[in-house]
Fold this sequence. Notes:
The complex is a heterodimer.
Chain A: E1 6-15, E2 35-39, H1 45-48, H2 53-61, E3 64-69, H3 89-101, E4 105-106, E5 109-110, E6 112-116, E7 126-134, E8 140-141, E9 148-157, E10 161-165, E11 169-173, E12 180-186, H4 193-209, E13 220-228, E14 234-239, H5 245-268, E15 279-280, H6 291-298, E16 302-308, E17 318-320, E18 323-324, H7 325-337, E19 343-344, H8 355-364, E20 372-378, H9 380-399, E21 404-408, E22 414-419, E23 426-428, E24 435-436, H10 439-446, H11 453-462, H12 467-475, H13 479-487, H14 492-508, H15 518-530, H16 538-546, H17 551-561, H18 565-578, H19 580-586, H20 591-602, H21 608-623
Parallel strand pairs in A: 3-11, 14-21
Antiparallel strand pairs in A: 1-12, 1-13, 2-3, 4-7, 5-24, 6-7, 6-23, 7-9, 8-9, 9-12, 10-11, 13-14, 15-16, 16-20, 17-18, 19-20, 21-22
Chain B: H1 5-13, E1 20-26, E2 29-36, E3 48-53, E4 58-62, E5 66-75, E6 95-100, E7 107-109, E8 116-118, H2 122-128, E9 137-143, H3 154-169, E10 175-178, H4 184-194, E11 195-196, E12 202-205, H5 218-231, E13 237-242, E14 249-254, E15 258-260, E16 269-271, E17 278-281, E18 286-288, E19 302-303, E20 311-315, H6 323-330, E21 335-340, H7 358-366, E22 370-375, H8 388-395, E23 399-400, H9 406-418, H10 423-430
Helix pairs in contact in B: 3-4, 4-9, 6-7
Amino acid sequence: MSTKEVTIGFEWHQRLKTHKLFCDCPSILGLKPESRIMRHMRLSYSELGEQDPAAVLEAKRARKFYYDFSSINSCLVELDEAPPHEINEEALRIAFKIALMFRMQILDEIRVMRKVVLDGSNTTGFQRTALVAIGTKESFLETNEGNVRLKTLCLEEESAFIEETEREEAIYRLDRLGIPLIELATEPDIHSAKQAVEVAEKVGLMLRLTGDVQRGLGSIRQDLNISIVGGSRQEIKGVQELELIPDIINYEVERQRNLIKIKEELNSRKVKKFEFKYFDVTNAFKSSNSKLVREALSRGEKAYLLPLPGLEGLLGMQIQPKRRFGTELADYARVWGGVKGILHSDELPGYGITAEEVALIRNEGNLDKDSAFVVVFSDARKAELALKAVLNRVNAALEGVPSETRKVNPDGTTSYLRPLPGAARMYPETDLLPIVVRKSSLEELRTQLPPTPEEVMKQIVGYGVSEQMAKQLIRSPDLQTFYKLVKENVDPVFVSSVLLNTIPSLRRSGVRTDEISENDLCSLILAFSREKLPKEAIEEALVLLSGGEEVNSVVSKIKNKVVGEEEVRKTIQQIVLEKKELINQRGKDAIKPLMGLAMERLRGKVQGSLVYELLKEEIEKVMK
Amino acid sequence: MPYSRKVQELFIKNGISVGDIVEVEAYGEKLSGVLLPREEIDFGDQDAIVIKLKNGYNIGINISNISSIRKTEAHVELEKFPKLTEVKQKTELPRISFVSTGGTISSRIDYLTGGVAMLFSPEEILNGVPELQNIVNIRRAERLFSLASEDLTPNEWKQIARKVVEFLTEGDEGVVILHGTDTMHFTAAALSFMIRGLNAPVVLTGAQRSVDRGSRDSDFNIISSAVVAAKFPYAVVSIVFHSSMSDDEAIVIRGTRARKMHTSRRDAFRPINEIPLAKVSKDGNISVIISNLKARSKDTPWVDDTFEEKTALIKTYPGSNPEVLDFLIDRGYRGVILEGTGLGHVPTQTLDQRNSWLNAIKRATDQSIFVGITSQCIYGRVDPYVYRNARLAFKSGATYLSDMTSETAYVKLGWLLGHGFDMEDVRKMMLFNFAGEISDGDDPRTYLY
């Protein structure tokens, strides 16, 4: 892609390592819920004024929201049964710190807002959010392809975790609701996948270096805003893996380019905007042997046809790997109509539907050979909603690329989620006072800013760790563990080697190193350092530890194995005696193969350096 | 706090007023947004101007950081509420009317400023809660006042009673009163006594959550209340409110037995010393639990709304000073409810005699001032015989008010005293059951219901 064809903006949502934002509940996830409540979400009054009350009534009957919770991490605030407590000071301080780190301007008076959310993901019907800082000329990230400006930093509450969602109801868990997160957004200054990855890595790293952010799956989510020339802006939600970013961007560019091609093709075919017309074609399937059809009919569903004159061949056109234009239409049918999916003319005959049946459908719908079509099996109400949505999407294709909110699929392609939100409805959180920011507290924070990635790199290399290891370490989740141990005077090279080599290699060979807590790991490494245990034994110790053994017992087991110098010398003398011929042949150079042999017999019982010294002495003795 | 003088002068100098879309240069950046007013009491920085940015966020910028502020052509009208849609009512449905007295439930929010306004009409209720179209035919909706319920006095109870009777006399099949929650149970008790010959259900309801939010409890409460007003077979004053923290069931609590038992939960109203009269499912089905109630009738209700203002409700506690009662006596009070402890005890045989309430009680009753005793246990019945202290208070002339709530006892006493009955009659009538406020039952299910 050419540098300026694509324009990308980033938005990060990073959870903070502190208790919840508007109550004192701990930010613990995954506890077994003990209770459940049920709620309905009502439209807001101002929305009511713009809508037909009958339609509103229909909308309101729609969904039940169940909320599962444990009283350990959820209180009346999460249940929307009590007003919010004052904002979590620590979270606010972390947000300030991050803003200062990115040289952003913290506002004088911060006002918590309510952002309306009616999908049930917030028990209140809104998300509490506050704009904490804005970008200025000073706030940018340097990249190899130019500066990327930062736009805004907000502090907000995390939504509830969705466990199950159906058209009529959804089940949420409240443990996640209310965990503080910062939302950091850039201007759309990114123009390539490579630059996007560079920015994402840099920001991720800087956030981690604060030591104040949560780690682990889901604790950071990235949204990408992508547009290409001639296309339109897409908001791609919930990118969790950095590795996927280049694919997402490349596939999106591909998608928009293909949609532009489809538009050009439709225009050259002189296809005009469609009126909504659809037919019941259940008759065409009366004697169908297709399993899909028979099951649908036995559920009492009917077949409805949406003719698409002039679209023959286009529905099957691939626009992203494994996704066709028809797949985009199916997304709309699912989201708006709540149907399972659609069938379209470019995939038929298929699914057990024969060429004869296709001919019958074409006949029923009075379709000519240039006409494509979509069929949906459903009840009448859902079918109408689904087909209308499909038609709207087709009509939008005549204009080009519609702006959408899309979600990421595991392979990096994206699916339609909902229309791009309009200007978010936000109004003041009237239960809280405005927060007046004191300059003095900011000045104090300025002195506590985390080091930049460059500074950290320099420091680690200064400890004698190789540059390559340092690079790995800085990106590793164990950086804080490294610092903790180095502060305790453990050899930094040893620590980095354990964290970056030993543990990953054990993990690869199936040892459950993930079961080892950070505390136990630190105690073990510390013990090795203090007791001068042979470094080679760390592997065995980690295996024992991951098997659930106590640190103390692991350490004493390793200690028992350690042998005294006399015994080591005896073993070495034995080896030297056995391999006298080799020594005679190779002289001093024999030390290399003999060292291997010695370590084989003494591994884990003694420091390798001692073995080397003794072996050298004994070989020299023999050579005399 | 409103804007400081300094800020106001800046506005005047630049010809700017609240609602203007302004361009501000601050921190070296250009920002634009709607200039908002500051709330009256927000403990914020009066020198900070508040603007709503295009992205929806409100922010405050201290004028010391503002290098310029300029008014643009555009202006936004604040406190503007959307137009209501006309609603065709189904005339065959039960006719009811609404009375609004204020409180959270009858307010509407201006989404720009967060300001709250009070508006009220049948259209507005139907636009807000469209489900009502299929339940009732709303004949009238009237806003009597816009008061937080802690600001209500017995005078307002009287006005509400008169309005309800007016509506019922005009043929309504039920009346729903939207009310602040804090003292709703006082009003419910007052209406229970002041409306005589009641012929149809009168329902009070309110909201524990602000009405701007998707999760508001008001709509469910209003729907359930309308169901009770339209369909409940009994002529009784009740409070209808969420039964639990879920939006799936409402309870109907007798007006003289209700109490707000939680500051913020949506199931705050509970029956005291009684179980609910009925439950209302979210599909609008009523299951009656207590049925020995007065049936709906063609009776003509009337208002009997006298109230003796010199009535008090006070609480005794360790170290409480009986001079409080002496003060009331000296000020010409006609009756006092003492909310005692346990089975209805007040400090009696204290080591320091100055802490004993006995003399003050005796002094009051000797002057024909009624002294009634209830319990701050809230649940259960008071008893003058079990302990010597209670016997002493009883002997001094205090009346033990059985299983009546303190709030209901206060309202009932004021109402009775308003009639000018003599002390002996007041005593008898305080223990006479007028509106389900007192009973001999000790149903174990009632505790913490």
